[in-house]
Amino acid sequence: MTDKRQLYILLFATTLSSFLTPFMGSGVNVALPVMARELSMNALTLSWVASSFILAAAVTLVPLGRLADIYGRKKIFLYGALVFTGSSFLCTWSATSAFLIFVRAIQGVGGAMIFSTGTAMLISAYSPRERGKILGINIAAVYIGLTIGPFIGGLLTEHLGWRYIFLFTSLLGIVVILLIAFMVKEEWKGAEEEGFDFRGSLLYGLALLAIMYGFSLLPELRAAGIIGLGVICFGFFIRRQMSAPYPLLNIRLFLDNKVFAFSNLAALINYCATFAVTFLLSLYLQHIKALTPSQAGIILIAEPAVQAVFSPLAGRLSDRFEPRIIASLGMALNVLGLIPLIFIRFDTGIHYIVLCLIVLGVGFALFSSPNVNATMSAVENKYYGIASATLSTMRLVGQMFSMGITMLVFALILGDLPLARAGNPLLLQSMQIIFFVLVILCCAGIVASLARGKVHQ
Questions:
Q1: Does a cis peptide bond (omega within 30 degrees of 0) precede residue 219?
Q2: pLDDT category, 1, cuts 50, 70, 90?
Q3: Three-class SS of the chain
Q4: Given a cut of 60, is residue 420 above it in pLDDT?
Q5: Burial class for 4, CB neighbours closer than 10 Å (0-12, 13-18, 19+)
Q6: What Cα–Cα distance (Å) separates residue 358 from each residue in 2, 145, 175, 308, 387?
Q7: 191-205 residue pLDDT tens
Q8: Predicted confidence band at 253 (pLDDT cuts at 50, 70, 90)?
Q9: What average pLDDT score do residues 345-372 get?
């Protein structure tokens, strides 16, 4: 792709799409207590408002990434923007928690179509020497979305209602659709002559759905059976992929490519250890500190604002220096940011929370861009779509496991009490336990990040 104007339009469209989902997600996090009151949801049901999106996206990401490699990344991206925008609009009409969770799942499929293609299109269009910089810009948009999401989400929720978060998101989605449909002319494919493994996709979807859904049901007894079913399906999936002429997921990428395998593992652990932080602190600030949604949103801006500032710098650094070192340093800073949150109390000062969020913001910025750069640089062009989808799957599975840990602790400590009636000491105790678990996970992530080996030879 040599037309600079086309490159800039592509970068803007994919960057705007990268902004949309975190903006919506962080805005929804601030609105969750209001949603819970309006739709009479308990803590576990409320968790599914976030988890349904993540679960649907995670299950469909890899098959959609493979379809994008075969039939065209721009085409799948455009369809994804249409599904995401349409379902965002439908969320504004939710009258029950069941309908909202269902439409959020559809929204997750649309999000998966965007996640699995946006990064792949950028990598395909830009030269290798610009990858870190472009990925840094793209990831900075994620953090800008996370930055202004709580603030705008809080304002919209407080003055107009939480439904306007989804309406605002759908309007921005229309802009992405128009840019891609009418202004980006080029299409990118990497495996157009290869076939699609439908049976493998079914096995993969069932395996991931069972494992993630079963994890969310813990500590119920049936959870073990559902997780076991998922593990069996995953075993059959791997066996099929080793012998299929056109596998859905080339297992050799993990077995023979150390950088790719450990970069994905590091991403999985990192998101598992950090995703629930905003959800938990939103509940802490509004239920324990009695702040309004907009006040909580302003405080939660601290982490993603720092991420937005440092992400482009981290991306450029990963073009010059080993991503392994930069990403591992970022993971270590995440540990330092999480440890103080274990000790939060009723009288903990807001400045204490903000300082923790700033440290987490720097850590996550230093981890994310270099980790994406390392992952995508470790594979050839024909695997860009599937590599992007795999990395996004690690992110979403990590997020789902993070929420699964949260739901498990809530189930054990809070039971099915509505949050409005759950005793604050029990809510605070739950948060302290969850933050302790997240610290342990993040320490394991440092080991995985260091184990990946060198990218620059």
A1: yes
A2: very low
A3: CCCHHHHHHHHHHHHHHHHHHHHHHHHHHHHHHHHHHHHCCCHHHHHHHHHHHHHHHHHHHHHHHHHHHHHCHHHHHHHHHHHHHHHHHHHCCCCCHHHHHHHHHHHHHHHHHHHHHHHHHHHHHCCHHHHHHHHHHHHHHHHHHHHHHHHHHHHHHHHCCCHHHHHHHHHHHHHHHHHHHHHCCCCCCCCCCCCCCHHHHHHHHHHHHHHHHHHHHCCCCHHHHHHHHHHHHHHHHHHHHHHCCCCCCCCHHHHCCHHHHHHHHHHHHHHHHHCHHHHHHHHHHHHHCCCCHHHHHHHHCHHHHHHHHHHHHHHHHHHHCCHHHHHHHHHHHHHHHHHHHHHCCCCCCHHHHHHHHHHHHHHHHHHHHHHHHHHHHCCCHHHHHHHHHHHHHHHHHHHHHHHHHHHHHHHHHCCCCCCCCCCHHHHHHHHHHHHHHHHHHHHHHHHHHHCCCCCCC
A4: no
A5: exposed
A6: 39, 16, 32, 11, 30
A7: 677 888 899 999 999
A8: confident
A9: 92
Type of residue at 167: L
Instruction: Give the pLDDT confidence of 171-226 residue by residue, as tens digits.
Output: 999 999 999 988 777 787 766 778 888 999 999 999 988 987 887 777 778 888 99
pTM of the predicted model as reported, rounded to 2 decimal places: 0.78
Whats the size of the chain, residue-wise?
457
CA distance 369 to 381: 19
Question: Residue 431 and residue 422: Cα distance in Å, rounded?
Answer: 13
- Tell me the two tokens of residue 177: 């659709």
Rounded-to-integer distance, Cα 9 and Cα 121, Å: 12
Contact 13, 65 (CB under 8 A): no
> Distance between CA atoms of 219 and 224, rounded to whole angstroms?
9
pLDDT tens for 3-49 read: 778 888 898 999 999 899 888 887 887 888 889 889 888 777 887 88
Give me the amino acid identity at 294. Answer: S
pLDDT of residue 120: 82
